[in-house]
């Protein structure tokens, strides 16, 4: 049987990019479709108040990235917090990307805030500082596409940090076999990042823009991270492609 994953989509992408990229939920579907572990997905845009029926059950719940702050006070964020805490209390597996990574850290006893380092955009390299059995294929370094100005600055007490660099010391973490989070965006592609950089060039300034554009020449390893995520979810289950 295929894994069943609920994608909690926490944003709408820019209108001029919708025709080509649709949304983060679609990007994740396309990413995971290329993995050796079979999975099925349902997407719920929680900004619009969409959630699964209580009777529906999934092997994992994935919280996407967002332009909003994980520590924001918007009503939909408060609703999402309550929902995610209920899922955690029920023992469900949770995956967090960018905003989701930050939100879960905040909810589970860590700290998330505006980073003193400023915006991180483009491709960054991370050291894999903890090796786990489900991290197959293995890697000691990872390149990931990023777009963030907030960071997890203190991991939850029971978290294990998995990846780090000088700019983002808590770039990935897990909590037992239940929670797995990444600051980077495995679902993004370089062309999407390039479009965002062009749109926000003036906002970020020429130095940040140029460094990020140049970094897109590097390969990024979202495919490896996606496979790790599915293997993390599949632990102890008899799922296969």
Please explain how this structure is put together:
With 241 residues, the chain is an alpha/beta fold. The chain has a single domain, classed as Class I glutamine amidotransferase (GATase) domain (Rossmann fold). It is 32% helix and 25% strand. It is built from eight helices and eleven strands. It has helices spanning 15-21, 24-32, 75-89, 99-107, 190-199, 201-204, 206-215, 222-234, and strands at residues 3-9, 39-45, 60-63, 94-97, 111-114, 120-128, 141-148, 150-154, 160-164, 172-175, 179-182. The strands form two sheets. A nine-stranded mixed β-sheet has the order 2-1-3-4-11-10-9-6-7, with helices on both faces. The protein has a two-stranded antiparallel ribbon with strand order 5-8. A hairpin with a 3-residue loop joins strand 10 and strand 11 (179-182). The chain is globular. The model has no long low-confidence stretch (mean pLDDT 91).
Spatially, the strands of the biggest sheet line up as: 2-1-3-4-11-10-9-6-7
Major sheet summary line: 9 strands, mixed
Instruction: Find the count of extended strands (DSSP E, 2+ residues).
Output: 11
Give the helix/strand class.
alpha/beta
Pfam families: GATase
GO molecular function, one term: transferase activity
Domain Glutamine amidotransferase: 86-189
Protein name: Amidotransferase
């Amino acid at each position: 049987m295929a894994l069943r994953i609920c994608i909690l989509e926490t944003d709408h992408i820019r209108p001029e990019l919708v025709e080509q990229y649709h949304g983060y939920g679609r990007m994740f579907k396309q990413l995971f479709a290329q993995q050796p572990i079979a999975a099925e997905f349902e997407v719920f845009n929680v900004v619009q108040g969409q959630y699964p029926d209580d009777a529906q059950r999934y092997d994992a719940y994935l919280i996407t990235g967002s332009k909003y702050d994980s520590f924001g006070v918007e009503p939909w964020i408060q609703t999402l917090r309550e929902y995610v805490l209920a899922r955690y209390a029920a023992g469900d597996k949770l995956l967090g990307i960018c905003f989701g990574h930050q939100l879960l850290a905040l909810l589970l006893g860590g700290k998330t805030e505006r980073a003193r380092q400023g915006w991180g955009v483009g491709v960054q390299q991370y050291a894999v500082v903890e090796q786990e059995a489900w991290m197959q294929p293995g890697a000691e370094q990872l390149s990931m596409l990023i777009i963030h100005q907030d960071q997890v600055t203190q991991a939850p007490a029971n978290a294990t940090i998995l990846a780090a660099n000088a700019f983002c010391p808590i770039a990935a973490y897990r909590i037992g076999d239940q929670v797995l989070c990444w600051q980077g965006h495995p679902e993004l592609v370089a062309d999407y990042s390039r479009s965002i950089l062009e749109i926000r060039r003036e906002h970020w300034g020429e130095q940040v823009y140029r460094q990020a554009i140049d970094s897109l020449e590097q390969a990024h390893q979202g495919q490896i991270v996606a496979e790790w995520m599915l293997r993390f979810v599949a632990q102890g289950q008899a799922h296969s492609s």
